[in-house]
Amino acid sequence: MKVRTRVAPSPTGDPHVGTAYVALFNMCFAQANGGQFILRVEDTDRARSTEASESAIINSLRWLGLDWDEGPDNGGGFGPYRQSERLDIYREYAEQLVASGNAFVCYRTPDELNQIREGRRTDGKTSALKQSDLMLPDDEIQRRKEAGAASVIRMIVPEGEGSCLIDDMLRGQIELDWSMVDAQILIKSDGAPTYHLANVVDDHLMEISHVIRGEEWINSAPKHQLLYQYFGWDMPILCHLPLLRNPDKSKLSKRKNPTSILYYERMGYLPEALINYLARMGWSMPDEREKFTLQEMIDEFEIDRISLGGPIFDLEKLSWLNGMWIRENLSESELADRLIQWAYNQSNLMKVLPHVQKRMETLSDFVDLTSFLVSGELSISKDDFSDLKTDLADSIRYFQFVLWRLETLDEWSRETIWESLKALSDALEIKIKDFLAPFFIAISGSSASFSVVDAMELLGAEMTKARIRYAMQVLGGVSKKEAKRLEKEYSRVVNS
Questions:
Q1: Helix (H, G, I), strand (E, B) or coil at 359
Q2: Can you say whether the dihedral through the CA atoms of 22, 23, 28, 29 is positive or negative?
Q3: Beta-ladder partners of 260
Q4: Mean pLDDT (whole number) for 255-280
Q5: How many other CB atoms sit within 10 Å of the CB of residue 144?
Q6: What is the pLDDT of residues 296-332, one digit of tens each?
Q7: Which residue, among 252, 248, 254, 304, has the nearest Cα to 277 in the 3D structure?
Q8: Whether the predicted pLDDT of 465 surpasses 90
Q9: CA 316/CA 273 separation, integer angstroms
Q10: CA atoms of 31 and 237, how far apart (whole Å)
C-alpha cells in the first residue's frame, strides 16, 4: 500500500500545539513507511478563516521542522489544497448522494429543529436527529423551495437499534451506537461543505491511505464510514491519537496553558525541544530516552509505540527539556546565533528603538526599557497594583473584558488594539488613562513603561494575552460563577 497521510488545520486562529502534535505523527508515519505527507487547509469557514492565520500555521509548522510533500504553498498533483478552492467538487458529490437516495434536502428552520430535539428528549430518545424527524410533506417542501427558504443537504443515517463497528490502528475495534448518530449536515445553507463531507471527499481524491487524527473525531467515524459506503470507496485506515491534557487531566486549553506555537517561539523555546516534547507526549523511543531529534524519531518510528494514556502537557517538563537542548546541543557560538535570530536581530531592534530612543541617556538604559519584551513570565505581585486608582476587582474585570475583546481581532496591530481598548473604556465610561493603568503592570511589569499599546503590538497576540491571564491569576483569578457574571456584563457592555 502506498502510504499517504495528511494534516488539515483550519486557519481560524493562532497555530495550535495540537495541530503540530497531529502533524508530527502523520509526517513520521509517512516518512517511516516511504510515503508522502500532505498539508491541506480546511478554510470553508469563510467568516473566521484568514490569510494571516494560514500563513502563521504554515510558518509555525516549518519552524518546528515539519515538512510536507504537497500543500498550498508548494503544490502537488492532487490540488488545490485549500478547501475554499474546491467548493464545486463538494457540491457535485453532495448532489450525487441526493440523487442516489443517501442524502436529502432539508428545509427545517432552527426553531423547528429545537422543537424536534426537545420532543425526542421528552420521549426518552437521544437528541440525534434522523431523517424521519426532519422530512416534510412534499407540498410543504415545494412551497418552501419556491419561497426561497434556506436549506441544507443532510446525509441519511440508520434509525433504530444497532451499532457501527470502526477499526482503529491503536484501539482495535470500536463499537458505536447508531442511535447517537444524527443526520449530519453535508452542505450548509451558504453552500459551504461541513468537515464531514469535505474531509471524506478530499481524503479519497487525494488518495489518503491513513487518517491519523485526534480522538475527538471517534464519534464522527460512523458518519465517515457511511459516506465511504455510499460513494463505493475504500475507507482509509483510521488511527485516533490521545488528546493532549492539562495537568488536571482536562483537555488542553488556552485558559490553563498557552496553546499557540507562536507563544512558545516568542518565549524562546527551541523548535527541536518543542517537537521533542510533543513526540514524548504520546510516543516513546525503543530505549526510552527522553531527548532525541526528529530524524531519530523517524528512523525508529513504529505507530504501536503510541500510548493511549492521556498525555499531560506540563510546562515545567517542557522547560526542563528545552534547557537540556540549550546546554547539550548548542555551542556558545550557536547559542549566540539563536539569541540573535530570536530577539536581537536588526528587524526586532528597529521595531523597538522608536519607542525607547527618546527615553535613553546611555546605551545601558536600553536594557531596563526593553527587558520585559524578552522576558517570559513577569515577576509581579498584588502589591504592584496597590497604588493604582483601580481596585483589584475592577482590574480583574478589565483584564477579562480585554481578553475577550482581543480574541476577536483578525489583525494584530497598534490600530486594532487601540480601537479595542478605547471602545471598551468608552463603553465602561472610564477614562482611558485609568483603564490602561493595570495593563502597564501586566504587560511590562512597571507603570513607567512606554505606551502599553505599542508594547502589546511588539509582544504579539499570544504573549500579550498570556501576560494578561497571568496578571489575573496574580490578583486572585476568576471563579466559574464570576466568569458567567462577567460574561453577561461584557455582553451588555459591548452590545449597548
A1: helix
A2: positive
A3: 16
A4: 92
A5: 17
A6: 999 999 999 999 987 989 999 999 999 999 999 999 9
A7: 252
A8: yes
A9: 13
A10: 17
What does 125-190 look like in DSSP terms, one character per residue?
A: --S---HHHH---HHHHHHHHHTT---EEEE----SS-EEEEEETTTEEEEEEGGG----EEE-TT
Task: Tell me what the pLDDT averaged over the chain comes to.
Answer: 94
Alpha carbon distance 240, 89 (integer Å): 27
Helix (H, G, I), strand (E, B), or coil: what is residue 109?
A: coil
Angle (deg, nearest 10), helices 452-459 and 414-427: 130
- The CA R_g of the chain, rounded to the nearest whole Å, is 26
> Which long-range CB contacts under 8 A does 300-304 form with residues at least 24 apart?
301/28, 301/29, 301/31, 301/32, 302/32, 303/25, 303/29, 303/169, 303/170, 303/212, 303/239, 304/169, 304/170
How distant, in Å, are the alpha carbons of 51, 389, 390, 398 from that of 436?
31, 11, 10, 9
Give me the helices (H) in 38-153, please: 51-63, 87-99, 110-122, 131-134, 138-146
Reference 456, options 464, 448, 446; nearest CA is 464
Domains of the chain: 89-161+174-187 (3.90.800.10), 365-495 (1.10.10.350)
Other Cβ atoms within 10 Å of 162 Cβ, number:
9
Q: Yes or no: say if 54 and 41 are a contact pair by the CB < 8 Å rule.
A: yes
Q: Does the reported pTM lie above 0.70? A: yes
CA distance 81 to 206: 9
Ordered alpha helix ranges (H), 312-364: 315-329, 332-342, 346-356
Angstrom distance (rounded) from CA 16 to CA 7: 13
Residues 228, 234: contact at Cβ < 8 Å?
A: yes
Catalytic residues: 254
